[in-house]
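Dear H.,

Thanks for agreeing to be a second pair of eyes. The structure we're designing against is below in token form, covering all 477 positions.
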């Protein structure tokens, strides 16, 4: 009962704030939020490991992979890989952005190339609900930095002093021919255009700094309004009362045995129900992913402590350099429904049983010996429209669904429109050729069914035995 009352109270707070037009700051959101957290992260190397993944937690320490442990967004621009994603919510909660490093190591690019002649762009997605995302776009942030060689590890924070976002990232601008990453910043209101980049953090001499993340502190806690943690040979902590003002060094985490030679990718999370924080650190040197470090005051190094053994669990996938959002009740409901752990399945042809429905260059057909096999794997989601319906989402191109247009099928990115939803929705019925199999009736053309013809997928009326066989499939793992 107490959990129900807490949830109801949180919802009433959120509604009251909405109708008063009050902007929720980050600490306020944590207090008003439902007990849920969303982590966006990548999981490793390779073209599929360096994409966007989501995980969920109810306590901030025990995490469950969403979307069956599969990626939730895939970059189709730039290097076609992303690392170090940051999830940003607008102050009024009406928009969200994911900004990430445009980087795909060992899928066409080496570390040396990425450091010395890498992408100067970030990859950006936008959403109004955390579940329907725009197509990604490239934002050139380092092109205007003289001799800037790359753009890594982006973050963004709302700055009430300027009423826009401070977007900051690392760029290698060599010093005397040697690598030296510094943190640069620019201001933006939409993550489509930025002001001229300026130096934000530079360490003395040849010392590099790559990763930094800022946490917004609630009033009355700690010595500073903002605290940032940075990877610069140590995990260095600094405090300030202004995002673009003067920052004071607080110390580092060497006292608890953590240095930049072991950990990187600092990621803050405030527990929603108390003044306690976790600073997650990526244990890159040992390859073990994130470790939570706990503190009751981010501005005091003496309060940081390592977690007790067995007190946390990061789930099935390795969580690497990302960010955490404290979810409201409505946000959590949407996210858990959209990214439910629906199993991946294949659609086997009834009359060509060595062939499966697959996409190839976003066209859809039936083929044998599909490689990679994920081109023939789909998550059968609740239909994008209607009740008792289904839609087919690609496993390796999440957000892309089987859609008919002019009775032909393609794999298409969901644009969130009613027309798309209708074209990508079907009723699963008993197989027209065998009731133990399945057929799929169009939602908006109920006289037509998914069928193959000359191995291409089509939407046709079914009038004979051949058509019934062509329109019958087995859902199989």
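And this is the sequence the design step returned. I haven't edited it by hand at all.
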């Amino acid at each position: 009962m107490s959990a129900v009352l807490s949830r109801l109270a949180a919802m009433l707070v959120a509604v009251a704030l909405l109708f008063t037009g009050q902007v929720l700051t980050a600490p306020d959101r944590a207090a008003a939020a439902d007990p849920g957290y969303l982590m966006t992260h990548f999981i490793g190397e390779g073209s599929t490991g360096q994409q966007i993944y989501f995980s969920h937690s109810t306590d901030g320490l025990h995490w469950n992979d969403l979307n069956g442990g599969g990626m939730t967004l895939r970059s189709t621009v730039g290097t076609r890989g992303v690392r170090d994603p940051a999830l940003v919510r607008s102050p009024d909660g009406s928009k969200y952005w994911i900004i990430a490093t445009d980087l795909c190591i060992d899928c066409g690019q080496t570390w040396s190339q990425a450091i010395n002649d890498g992408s100067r762009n970030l990859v950006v997605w936008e959403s109004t609900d955390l579940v329907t995302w725009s197509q990604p776009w490239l934002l050139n942030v380092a092109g205007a930095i003289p001799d800037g060689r790359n753009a890594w590890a982006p973050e963004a924070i709302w700055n009430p002093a300027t009423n826009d976002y401070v977007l900051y990232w690392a760029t290698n601008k060599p010093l005397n021919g040697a690598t030296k990453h510094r943190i640069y910043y620019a201001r933006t209101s939409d993550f489509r255009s930025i002001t001229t980049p300026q130096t934000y953090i530079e360490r003395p001499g040849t010392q590099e700094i790559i990763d930094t993340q800022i946490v917004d502190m609630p009033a009355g806690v700690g010595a500073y309004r903002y605290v940032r943690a940075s990877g610069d040979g140590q995990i260095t902590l600094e405090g300030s009362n202004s995002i673009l003002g003067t920052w004071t060094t607080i110390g580092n985490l060497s006292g608890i045995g953590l240095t930049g030679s072991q950990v990187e990718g600092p990621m803050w999370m405030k527990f929603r129900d108390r003044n306690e924080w976790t600073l997650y650190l990526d244990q890159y040197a040992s390859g073990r992913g994130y470790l939570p470090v706990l503190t009751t005051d981010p501005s005091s190094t003496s309060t940081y402590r390592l977690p007790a053994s067995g007190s946390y669990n990061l789930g099935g996938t390795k969580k690497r350099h990302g960010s955490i959002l404290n979810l409201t009740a409505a946000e959590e409901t949407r996210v858990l429904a959209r990214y439910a752990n629906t199993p991946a399945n294949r659609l086997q042809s009834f009359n060509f049983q060595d062939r499966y429905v697959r996409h190839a260059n976003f066209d859809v057909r039936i083929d044998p010996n599909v490689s990679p096999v994920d081109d023939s794997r789909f998550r059968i989601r609740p239909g994008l429209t209607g009740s008792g319906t289904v839609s087919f989402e690609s496993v390796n191109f999440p957000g892309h669904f089987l859609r008919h247009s002019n009775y032909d099928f393609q794999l298409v990115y969901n644009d969130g429109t009613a027309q798309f939803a209708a074209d990508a929705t079907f009723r699963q019925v008993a197989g027209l050729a065998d009731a133990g199999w399945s057929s799929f009736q169009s939602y908006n053309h109920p006289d037509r069914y998914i069928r193959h013809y000359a191995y291409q997928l089509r939407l046709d009326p079914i009038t004979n035995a051949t058509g019934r066989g062509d329109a019958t499939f087995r859902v199989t793992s």
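Two observations from my side: The chain has seven helices and 31 strands. The radius of gyration is 24 Å.

Warmly,
E.
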